């Protein structure tokens, strides 16, 4: 139950993918940690993120024409969900299973996916001379940037690059007058522009359209100029270089703040984040020295941590955890994925709570 992290052996990142670029720009240290831990997360993903991989795989199979009929769809979808559930159980996340019950919108997302099936099949049969290329790998001449494009539609001189997203594509933004408007997320815009430049390096032609398509089959065009794509491409390469250089100089560029760290699965290995946790109590993670452990009559266990002058209470541990917590009294620990309770400095353990020493 008490997890440990050994020494972090940083390794050079050989290649950056367009989908990774934005995250690397926000915190290059996260990319270095991911590489050091062979892209094996140190914390569980949310069940929605796991399910997202199934949705994306299904879109890929539909785009490739492997899943054509509704029967194909149902059989493949059940197979994918079953495999994911088995994997989750093996990882010790059996509490996410069955996904059908545990995930809100499971049924809705399945119905939305099916809409892709019908329309994509119709498109392919009715527009026979258009070339659909799905899941095509493109990399730069120097191999430093590379990634798989979900779908390229080539119709004479018209070339469209499409990326499928299973979550929200837009976000609310504020205009100069303070009015809220909705716009495609910057990370997705930049990802597509990098694909456009990779396509150009491989074919000597720029795509004419870049689009994002969501589960509900809504299409969001992304405007671009060739110059913009080239600038982002150069920026990505120089970011990769400076990130790799930081391993030698040990002057890492980390950016610990809520929007970067909240979903970072390498938080347990990040000293910058731990420093932040010493004074910032807004995260769903806490650290401190174990001062006391109490077992209540109903079996619930509470843990009392001291972080500097602050006393933190973490409730809702199970009875089985009492002995180990008690054995580790006076030890400095970090607890990830707790729930903030209404009362200040009081938290609760959840299904995904993980302790690192
Ligand atoms: S925890 Fe935050 S600062 Fe640390 S690597 Fe992750 S995103 Fe960067």
UniProtKB/TrEMBL annotation:
Gene3D superfamilies: 3.90.320.10. InterPro entries: Cas4_exonuclease, PDDEXK-like_dom_sf, PDDEXK_AddAB-type, Restrct_endonuc-II-like. Residues 15-270 form the PD-(D/E)XK endonuclease-like domain. Its cofactor is [4Fe-4S] cluster. SUPFAM superfamilies: Restriction endonuclease-like. Keywords: Hydrolase, Iron, Iron-sulfur, Metal-binding, Nuclease. This is PD-(D/E)XK nuclease family protein. It comes from Pedobacter flavus. The lineage of its organism: Bacteria, Pseudomonadati, Bacteroidota, Sphingobacteriia, Sphingobacteriales.
């Amino acid at each position: 139950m008490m997890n440990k992290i050994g020494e972090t052996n940083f390794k050079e990142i050989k290649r950056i993918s367009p989908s990774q670029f934005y995250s690397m720009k926000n915190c290059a240290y996260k990319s270095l940690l991911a590489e050091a831990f062979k892209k094996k997360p140190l914390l569980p993903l949310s069940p929605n993120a796991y399910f997202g991989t199934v949705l994306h795989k299904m879109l890929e199979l539909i785009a490739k024409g492997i899943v054509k009929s509704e029967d194909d769809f149902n059989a493949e979808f059940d197979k994918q969900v079953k495999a994911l559930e088995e994997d989750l159980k093996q990882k010790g996340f059996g509490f996410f299973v069955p996904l059908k019950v545990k995930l809100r919108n499971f049924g809705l997302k399945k119905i939305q996916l099916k809409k892709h099936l019908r329309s994509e099949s119709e498109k392919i049969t009715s527009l026979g001379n258009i070339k659909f290329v799905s899941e095509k790998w493109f990399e730069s001449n120097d191999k430093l940037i590379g990634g798989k494009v979900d779908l390229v539609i080539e119709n004479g001189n018209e070339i469209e690059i499409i990326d499928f997203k299973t979550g929200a594509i837009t976000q609310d933004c504020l205009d100069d007058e303070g009015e809220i408007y909705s716009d495609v997320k910057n990370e997705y815009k930049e990802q597509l522009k990098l694909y456009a430049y990779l396509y150009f390096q491989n074919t000597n032609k720029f795509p004419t359209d870049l689009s994002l398509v969501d589960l509900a089959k809504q299409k969001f065009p992304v405007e671009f100029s060739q110059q913009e794509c080239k600038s982002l491409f150069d920026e990505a390469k120089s970011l990769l270089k400076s990130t790799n250089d930081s391993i030698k100089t040990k002057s890492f560029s980390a950016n610990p703040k809520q929007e970067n760290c909240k979903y970072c699965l390498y938080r347990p290995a990040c000293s910058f984040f731990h420093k932040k946790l010493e004074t910032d109590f807004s995260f769903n993670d806490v650290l401190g020295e174990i001062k006391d452990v109490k077992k209540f009559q109903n079996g619930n266990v509470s843990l009392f941590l001291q972080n500097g002058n602050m006393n933190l209470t973490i409730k809702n541990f199970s009875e089985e955890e009492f002995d180990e917590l008690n054995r580790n009294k006076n030890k400095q620990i970090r607890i990830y994925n707790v729930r903030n309770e209404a009362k200040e400095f009081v938290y609760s353990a959840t299904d995904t709570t993980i302790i690192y020493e």
